[in-house]
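Thread amino acids onto this structure.
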């Protein structure tokens, strides 16, 4: 029987950590849709989970080739949401890392940074538009709904901005580390 858990994450690393903690308790991810995880009981610690943001949608030819390559190496494709994919591998088969070198880590973080930048700027624009419309409506008709939407967009922008900043720091740190290695 599947157990459903609703949860949202702004950090794929924290989400990945939580999935692995759930796996350690015997709850194995079977599917994911926005904010909803479906788990099935199994042997505790049986799998290690990893999450990746692909460049293209999972049904894109390049992504399909990559997913098939992963499956050929013993990795199981579990689910996807937009360009995010969820993989798992049996823990008794050893370590499971998706990024074997600094370049692949930097590339992945840059994809996340690009996605969060788009979300950040769209919300920022929405905030200013709603703020303008809200101020005009408030002055003319005492209508405050757009000011509420502007506030929501501001809050989302602040959250996403914080996430963007953390990934920018990670990319900068990895690039520094790469320079030291070279």
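Threaded sequence (182 positions):
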């Amino acid at each position: 029987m599947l157990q459903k858990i609703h949860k949202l994450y702004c950090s794929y690393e924290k989400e990945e950590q939580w999935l692995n903690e759930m796996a350690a308790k015997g709850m194995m991810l079977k599917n994911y849709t926005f904010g909803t995880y479906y788990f099935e009981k199994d042997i505790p610690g049986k799998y290690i989970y990893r999450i990746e943001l692909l460049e293209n949608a999972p049904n894109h030819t390049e992504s399909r080739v990559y997913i098939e390559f992963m499956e050929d190496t013993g990795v199981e494709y579990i689910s996807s949401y937009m360009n995010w994919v969820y993989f798992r591998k049996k823990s008794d088969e050893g370590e499971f890392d998706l990024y074997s070198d600094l370049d692949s880590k930097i590339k992945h973080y840059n994809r996340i940074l690009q996605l969060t930048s788009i979300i950040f700027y769209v919300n920022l624009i929405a905030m200013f538009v709603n703020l303008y419309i809200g101020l005009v409506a408030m002055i003319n008709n005492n209508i405050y709904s757009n000011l509420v939407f502007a506030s929501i967009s501001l809050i989302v922008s602040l959250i996403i901005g914080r996430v963007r900043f953390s990934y920018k720091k990670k990319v900068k740190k990895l690039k520094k580390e790469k320079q030291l290695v070279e």
